[in-house]
Design a protein that fits this description.
Layout (H helix, E strand, L loop, with lengths): L2 H18 L5 E12 L9 E14 L2 E11 L5 E2 L4 E2 L3 E16 L4 E16 L9 E15 L6 E13 L4 E14 L1
Antiparallel strand pairs: 1-2, 1-10, 2-3, 3-6, 4-5, 6-7, 7-8, 8-9, 9-10
Length: about 190
């Protein structure tokens, strides 16, 4: 193939990719729900309130890179003994980052997606009860999502996202299931 033809095909290929990208590449998502320790150790409650935020950028129509922050508020229950009753203030902070594959349905107004990637975890506790201490570490996360557009311009979305956070902190290995309702804005 001659160099001029090769250049022409390269330009045509790049032009088709540029047209294939959706106009709304950026998304900001706020989420709220609950989290559950699926590998509970002695003193953690079954559930905790979970809040979070995520930023995503579509690099191709069906692939998005994203990063966010999710928290579980007061996951440690009460420590009750014969001479004490301690209800420590505690929280998990997870920073998931990775990629998400997206399947648009019904004129791009409904989306199903799956994602995976890395995770940074930090657990902090105000008063150190016996056997519980703050910790941090790295791990991975897996998740899925279903979302519905609220407007014809596809700027506002409502969705639900179940996720699994797996962190290895050098002490206990944390395994948390988090499910949230999501509100997203795309621009």
């Amino acid at each position: 193939m001659q160099p001029g033809m090769r250049l022409l095909f390269t330009v045509l290929f790049l032009a088709t990719l540029a047209k294939a990208q959706a106009d709304l590449r950026n998304s900001v998502t706020f989420s709220g729900g609950y989290s559950r320790d699926v590998d509970a150790i002695c003193c953690q409650t079954d559930t905790a309130v979970s809040l979070g935020g995520t930023y995503g950028y579509r690099i191709w129509p069906f692939l998005q890179v994203e990063a966010g922050v999710t928290t579980a508020l007061n996951p440690v229950g009460a420590f009750i003994g014969s001479n004490y009753n301690v209800r420590p203030s505690s929280r998990f902070v997870w920073v998931p980052f990775g990629v998400r594959g997206i399947l648009p349905l019904h004129s791009d107004r409904i989306e199903l997606s799956v994602g995976a990637g890395g995770l940074y975890e930090k657990f902090s506790i105000a008063a150190n009860p016996p056997g519980v201490a703050g910790r941090q570490g790295w791990g991975e996360h897996f998740g899925a999502s279903a979302a519905l557009s609220l407007d014809h311009g596809r700027h506002f979305w409502l969705g639900v996202s179940p996720r699994l956070f797996l962190a290895n902190t050098g002490g206990p290995n944390d395994r948390w299931f988090v499910i949230t309702g999501d509100v997203s804005f795309r621009f």
